[in-house]
Specification:
The structure holds two protein chains of two kinds. In chain A, β7 and β8 form a beta hairpin. Chain A is 0% helix and 57% strand. Chain A has no helices and eleven strands. By secondary structure, chain A is an all-beta fold. In chain A, the strands form two sheets. In chain A, strands 2, 4, 5, 6, 9, 10 and 11 form a seven-stranded mixed beta sheet that branches. In chain A, strands 1-3-8-7 form a four-stranded antiparallel beta sheet, with no helix packed on it. Chain B is mainly β. Chain B contains no helices and twelve strands. Chain B starts with a strand and ends with a strand. The chains are: A mainly beta, B mainly beta.
Chain lengths: 115, 113
């Protein structure tokens, strides 16, 4: 079964600083990869998803970007953080051939606080 | 428009009592249906899923859910709640030919002694 790693687990950054969050997946190949954000007291918001290396689909216009340099690596970035970027960021993988194509498994998350 | 509704924002239940969390969806066809649980500060864990077949599905941690096509619902149940079941629960829905899931807003469950 797949294992999803996210780091860092916790991050405190000043407004205007850059951001790089990393997600790596083990135990599977060619997964679909997803970035979600949970703002305080709110539900899950899909930010980006990727069905292959270099293929990124953006769901919400914002100052964040995503990249997939390797099959099992998904990176979330920002050049200048805003206060509103604070939240809990979750990486997920899915698209396994023996499951529903959109069944997803989640990583442990990264807590980002922008001050 | 496609949507997933969890009508209850917060439910408080006594330990040992039964629990039912509601989920309704609005889709043109029968979608894939999922329930996830999230403990504070953790990622989401898949509790159970429905793709087709038997409309009563069993999951982990003693949970079950029943798909009712006529009511467009997929309610989650547990006969006897444990204190460790205190968490946030998300219903999710996906179309069979889509990469994405639509999540409900979540229901927070508090368990009192």
């Amino acid at each position: 079964s797949q294992t999803i790693h996210q780091w860092p687990a916790t991050l405190v950054q000043p407004v205007g600083s850059p951001l790089s969050l990393e997600c790596t997946v083990e135990g599977t190949s060619n997964p679909n990869l997803y970035w979600y954000r949970q703002a305080a007291g709110r539900g899950l918001q899909l930010l980006f998803y990727s069905v292959g290396i270099g293929q990124i689909s953006s769901e919400v216009p914002q100052n964040l970007s995503a990249s997939r340099p390797q099959d099992r690596q998904f990176i979330l970035s920002s050049k200048k953080l805003l206060l509103s970027d604070s939240g809990f960021y979750l990486c997920a993988c899915g698209g396994q051939w023996d499951r529903a194509y959109n069944e997803q498994f989640f990583g442990p998350g990264t807590r980002l606080t922008v001050l | 428009a496609q949507s997933v509704t969890q009508p209850d924002i917060h439910i408080t239940v006594s330990e040992g009592a039964s629990l039912e969390l509601r989920c309704n969806y609005s889709y043109g066809a029968t979608p894939y249906l999922f329930w996830y649980v999230q403990s504070p500060g953790q990622g989401l864990q898949l509790l159970l899923k429905y793709f087709s077949g038997d409309t009563l599905v069993q999951g982990i941690k003693g949970f079950e859910a029943e798909f009712k096509r006529s009511q467009s619902s997929f309610n989650l149940r547990k006969p006897s709640v444990h204190w460790s079941d205190a968490a946030e629960y998300f219903c999710a829905v996906g179309l069979t030919n889509d990469y994405k899931l639509s999540f409900g807003a979540g229901t927070t469950v508090t368990v009192r002694a």
